[in-house]
Amino acid sequence: MIPFPNASAPRPSTPLPGVPGADARVLVVDDEETIRLAIGRFLERRGYAVTLAGNASVALDALEAAPPGHFALMLCDVRMPGMSGVDLVPRARVADPALA
After folding, report:
1. What is the rounded CA–CA span in Å between residue 79 and residue 64?
2. Which among 19, 31, 59, 70 is most buried, taking Cβ atoms within 10 Å?
3. Beta pairing class for 25-29 and 49-53
4. pLDDT by residue (tens digit) across 11-70?
């Protein structure tokens, strides 16, 4: 689990429509670093606290280590080596039932 590096980007207070508030924590899971970083940067610039995970196993570790409700949202790739995003989602919901 890697906290997203803050690149001193402006942090507007406009969250995405239908997504928890701008101070929400988002877990981004993608095996492709470029995509993971781009999504993280996009979200961080909108005020979200972003945690990055390079695979499903790392994401599950982050979810299990955090208190329930720590992450408001998880965005994940569908096709990843090892455990796919499709397999990750039900396991993530067990680790944190409040996860959107």
Report:
1. 22
2. 59
3. parallel
4. 555 555 555 666 689 999 999 999 999 999 999 998 899 999 999 999 999 999 999 999
